[in-house]
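User: Run a structure prediction on this.
Assistant: Running it now.
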Amino acid sequence: MTENIPSCPKCSCEYTYEMNDLVVCPECGHEWVPAESGAEGGGGAGERVIKDAVGNVLQDGDTVVVVKALKVKGSPSGIKAGTKVRNIRLVEGVAGHDIDCKIEGFGAMQLKSSVVKKA
């Protein structure tokens, strides 16, 4: 059974295990979708996987934390690192902005998944 599970691509650990649709490395904590189920051959029905800055898979309704300060056009202050954003929605955004959300004090906006961490 373990011969079908790939080794970790980050640390080459061979003790990986399956958890739902993901493969998890117990040594470094890396999680990924195995290539077998990810059918990149243009299946059309495949679901897009969006990951945060640390590599956690994001889903609609998740709560995330902004990991670095962001400038916002038209706002003198911007969004501070550590700002918690609740109930995100994953979208096909423009220029890499793939999270649709409402931030208290700023309103509705889109964020890049590379600047947030799952809470």
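The radius of gyration is 17 Å.
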